[in-house]
Amino acid sequence: MSRPLSTLAWQVAIVAVLLALWQWAWSLKPYAPWAVPDLFDPYFVSRPSEIFEQFLRLSCLQPKPGEWAMPGGTAFSACTARYENNLWFATFVTLRNTFFGFLTGVTSGVVLGLLLGRSPRLAEIASPFVTAVNSIPRIALAPIIILAFGIGDASKIATSWIVVVFLVFFNTFEGARSVDPDYVNASRLLGASEWQITRTVIIPSTMAWVFASLTPAVSFALIGVIVGEFIGAEFGIGRLIIESEARGEAAGMMVAVFVLMIVGIVLSAGIQRMQSYLLRWQPRHQGR
């Protein structure tokens, strides 16, 4: 237990030092300008104390200075009704669109990867088309998607999907092609059908490849939604960032950035836990 506790202590100490430098370093700028980079200018990155205060306001936990509101209370309800895109609802909207974009992107990427990975002829026919579409920067398609689907949730899900699908597809495709032919031949020798081979040999063997793409895929799904919200949205964390930028409020933007960071960490941890469970038969996932 000493090693995990030591690691945690170092992590906490590093965070504490970084927050202290962030909070007070700019105050030393007049005395030692050579030692304090312009990055610490509060106009650009605010200060941790101001970010925390802005978090309380955006989350309706402190609607007015000195006035605290508990979730479910009258003041809290009035604040959330007055500010429709409050931090709680904005996070919910972004998470919902990220979930659907991630789910559709992973599902279609796995299906296409297995289909082309199991059929060399189909892979040969589709290769130039896949290469052509994959060469387009996906984010460049976001304005077209907004134009086609509007500023509602559908455009955010579509943007998230198009960012995720190719990432999962290529991993699944390579995984399906890398299955040991001896396993496939042995299954055929035992009388297994193509569907049985796919279900019992190809898919389990490809799972490690698929999960290798899921951790970055969930981050890319979140990125796709945020980009869509930057371009046009009624609600969401991306909309909060744009509104704060328009008002010149660095603290508001940093609150949204920290929320996105926490959301990304939670989602990645969930994917890793699911990976450890589904791939528990592998030695490196045993005992986790």
Automatic annotation (TrEMBL):
It is found in: Cell membrane. The keyword Transcription regulation does not apply. It is a multi-pass membrane protein. It comes from the Bacteria. Keywords: Cell membrane, Membrane, Transmembrane, Transmembrane helix, Transport. GO terms for biological process: transmembrane transport. The chain crosses the membrane at residues 7-26, 98-117, 129-151, 157-173, 208-231, 251-271. Residues 91-272 form the ABC transmembrane type-1 domain. It holds the Pfam family BPD_transp_1. The keyword Cell membrane applies. GO terms for cellular component: plasma membrane. Signal peptide: none annotated. Its main location: membrane. Belongs to the binding-protein-dependent transport system permease family. PANTHER family: ABC TRANSPORTER PERMEASE PROTEIN HI_0355-RELATED, ALKANE SULFONATE ABC TRANSPORTER-RELATED, MEMBRANE SUBUNIT. This is ABC transporter permease.
